[in-house]
Amino acid sequence: MPLIEIQDLHATVDGKEIIKGLSLTINPGEVHALMGPNGAGKSTLSNVIAGREGYEVTGGRVLFDGRDIADMEADERATAGIFLAFQYPVEIPGVATTTFLKAAMNAKRRAHGEGEIDAMQFLKLLRAQQKELDIPDEMIKRPVNMGYSGGEKKRAEALQMAMLQPRFCILDETDSGLDIDALKVVSDGVNKLRTAERGFLVITHYQRLLNYIVPDFVHVFAGGRIVKSGGKELALELEEKGYAEFAEQAA
User: Fold this and answer.
1) The ABC transporter domain covers which part of the protein (predicted)?
2) C-alpha span between 90 and 102 (Å, rounded)
3) Strand pairing of 92-96 and 199-204?
4) Overall pTM surpassing 0.85 (yes/no)
5) Cα→Cα distances 164→20, 153, 172, Å
6) Is 104 buried (19+), middle (13-18) or exposed (0-12) by CB count in 10 A?
7) Closest Cα partner for 168 from 21, 1, 3, 46?
8) Confidence label for 42 from pLDDT (cuts 50, 70 and 90)
9) What is the domain range of residue 171?
10) Is the per-residue pLDDT at 34 higher than 90?
């Protein structure tokens, strides 16, 4: 069974149609890259799948593990196993990162009929993942994303993924604002999560991220729909030629 199946999806934001008939199937174990020019609707797609308010589906549907997610609230989608790493991670004043992570893990466990995680077990898991992602104690004691650099925010999101172990991960331009060192750390964290059961949708403008998170499939998104699909070599073609050809095709 496909992990994610998007069928002829149409969606609007503030009454304007942004997604205009998008179909895409992502199977367990696959990494799909979605590339395209600014304004194509890539981030709109990620927000629609995650269930963000203000994004209205006007046609088609999105299935997760065979279930239509239209009737699921954003928190239900998250506890079911859908994770969105934001292009611009939000700051949460007054909530320590450790507190946030434990609350998120316990919310997921309750949704699956499990008891809350033991404090020592949580700490052991956290320490192991901190080491993998080069995240110091001082950083996770601070409020979520408050005072973080761009690279720290993206590492914090990789930490959330590692702790929550979602089935489907959407990375919305996670390379935005990262230098090469930070990009390598974040990409290593993502690659460690690649399994036969988990799927990824990697949204990016640039081929450089795909040097580190190597996709199985690359899709060009322009004019609200996918206009071309291929293997990882398609990303190199886009890097060389740009999106002009596809923007004209979508017009």
Assistant:
1) 4-248
2) 18
3) unpaired
4) yes
5) 32, 17, 18
6) middle
7) 3
8) confident
9) 4-91+166-250
10) yes
Interval 106-131: pLDDT, tens: 999 999 999 999 999 999 999 999 98
Instruction: Give the DSSP letter of residue 220.
Output: E
pLDDT at 208: 86
- Where are the alpha helices (H) located in the chain, listed in sequence order? 42-50, 74-80, 97-111, 119-133, 137-141, 150-164, 180-191, 233-241, 244-250
In a domain, 245, yes or no: yes
- Exposure string for 153-165, b = 16+ CB within 10 A, e = fewer: bbbbbbbbbbbbb
Which class for 99: exposed (0-12), middle (13-18), buried (19 or more C-beta within 10 A)?
Answer: middle
How confident is residue 251, by pLDDT bands cut at 50, 70 and 90? low
Q: Is residue 232 part of a domain?
A: yes
Q: Is the dihedral of CA 143, 97, 177, 39 positive or negative?
A: negative
What CATH number is given to the structural domain containing 204? Answer: 3.40.50.300
Q: Domain total for the chain?
A: 1
Q: Concatenated DSSP letters for 75-108?
A: HHHHHHTEEEE-SSPPPEEEEEHHHHHHHHHHHH
Q: Is 110 contained in some domain? A: no
